């Protein structure tokens, strides 16, 4: 057999890597540290019993869109739902990027922005962030005006740095994007941790779309559900491109049920923020470089600068963090997700031992 050749533009493609290792303390994928409340599981179980399993689900996810819209004080026509915000981003890129077009990211940022860009057939281009991972707005805007990307990504709070993009920055980038007929996507996977949201900038005649997910703050990574908020004309275009009936009935029910527990979600966010402060302080004590985080994770560089060795040392203590040490721009850095207090203690104790072992 001659193996069928993959698309030439994907021939050298590497899949997405995020190892799922069996450990006692898992702090590597920015999930919520605990499950949603029991009432949520009970509501989903009750909904499961009423599903007409022989029928296709509501293709438009009418109720779910309306409920998400209410959460953000927007009509349902401004809401698009998909299987995780990754599918939201994929649908946006299939619709507005694709062959012959470019997509701009500001690095370092969420790897899937450029990854899905390639899958869509478009060409990723990037601008580097400053040494402190802030954005040089002048450079960002001049690049947009010169390169005229079809899609520009901002991620706020940014993964993996944790930095919240100031409102003035987003407004400036949006103006440049608008001037070249492009689209600005603001990925707010960690939006509930930030002091402001680009949702406040949405307008019918503004080329802006904001993506959100149930995977992090809603403690529902297993559900694979995310959504976009944007102008109605944009949502209509996304609806033409996404596969029909892509959102199963149980997922739609789960997404609706979750929204009944808004106060629990907000309480989880507050306790994560409190723990984040405690971890940050201790990391600084231990001599690590720490970047101020507006999310549920912290990027840090161990004093030895030898991230991979520290990562392995932590793993020996059954603590898994994200090894970003070899990522471009992130030389020697690690990213730790804020877990439950006892998990954070395990992480900090293990880190102390690993760091102590070298000095
Ligand atoms: C985790 C994350 C997502 C979430 O993707 P899902 O497909 O919704 O699980 C999206 N964007 C960023 C920046 C993330 O960190």
Key features of this structure:
7-stranded mixed sheet, alpha/beta, 5-stranded mixed sheet, Aspartate Aminotransferase, domain 1
What features would you describe in this structure?
The chain folds into two domains: 20-36 and 263-358, Aspartate Aminotransferase, domain 1, CATH 3.90.1150.10; 38-261, Type I PLP-dependent aspartate aminotransferase-like (Major domain) (Aspartate Aminotransferase, domain 2), CATH 3.40.640. It is built from eleven helices and twelve strands. The chain has helices at residues 38-50, 62-71, 84-96, 111-119, 137-147, 167-179, 232-241, 249-258, 262-285, 307-316, 341-356; strands spanning 25-27, 79-82, 102-107, 123-128, 151-155, 183-187, 208-213, 226-229, 289-290, 297-301, 319-323, 334-337. A seven-stranded mixed beta sheet has the order 2-8-7-6-5-3-4, sandwiched between helices. Helix 6 (167-179) links the parallel strand 5 (151-155) and strand 6 (183-187). The radius of gyration is 21 Å and the shape is globular. The chain starts with 24 loop residues before the first strand and ends with a helix. The model has no long low-confidence stretch (mean pLDDT 95). Pyridoxal-5'-phosphate (PLP) binds next to helix 3.
């Amino acid at each position: 057999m001659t193996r069928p050749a993959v698309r030439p533009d994907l021939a050298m493609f590497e899949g997405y890597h995020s190892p799922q290792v069996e450990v006692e303390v898992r702090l590597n994928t920015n999930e919520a540290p605990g499950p949603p409340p029991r009432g949520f599981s009970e509501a989903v179980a009750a909904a499961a019993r009423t599903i007409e399993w022989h029928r296709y689900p509501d293709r438009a996810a009418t109720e779910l869109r309306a409920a998400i819209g209410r959460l953000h004080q927007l009509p349902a026509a401004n809401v698009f739902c998909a299987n995780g915000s990754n599918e939201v981003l994929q649908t946006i890129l299939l619709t507005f990027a694709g062959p012959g077009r470019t997509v701009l990211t500001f690095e370092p940022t969420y790897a899937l922005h450029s990854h899905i860009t390639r899958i869509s057939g478009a060409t990723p281009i990037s601008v580097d962030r400053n040494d402190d991972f802030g954005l040089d707005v002048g450079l960002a805007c001049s690049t947009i005006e010169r390169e005229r990307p079809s899609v520009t990504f901002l991620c706020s709070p940014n993964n993996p740095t944790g930095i919240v993009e100031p409102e003035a920055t987003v407004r400036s980038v949006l103006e440049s994007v608008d001037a070249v007929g492009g689209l600005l996507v603001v990925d707010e996977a960690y939006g509930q941790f930030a002091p402001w949201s680009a949702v406040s900038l949405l307008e019918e005649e503004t080329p802006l779309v904001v993506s959100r997910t149930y995977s992090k703050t809603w403690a529902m990574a297993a559900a694979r559900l995310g959504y976009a908020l944007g102008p109605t004309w944009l949502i209509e275009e996304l609806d033409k491109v996404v596969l029909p009936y892509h959102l199963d009935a149980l997922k739609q029910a789960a997404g609706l049920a979750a929204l009944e527990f808004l106060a629990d979600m907000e309480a989880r966010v507050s306790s994560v923020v409190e723990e984040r402060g405690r971890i940050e302080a201790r990391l600084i004590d231990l001599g690590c470089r720490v970047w101020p985080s507006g999310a549920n994770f912290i990027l840090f560089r161990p004093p030895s600068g030898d991230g991979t060795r520290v990562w392995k040392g932590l793993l020996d203590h059954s603590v898994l963090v994200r090894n970003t040490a070899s990522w471009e721009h992130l030389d020697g850095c690690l990213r730790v997700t804020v877990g439950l207090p006892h998990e954070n203690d395990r992480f900090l104790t293990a880190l102390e031992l690993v760091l102590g072992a070298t000095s």
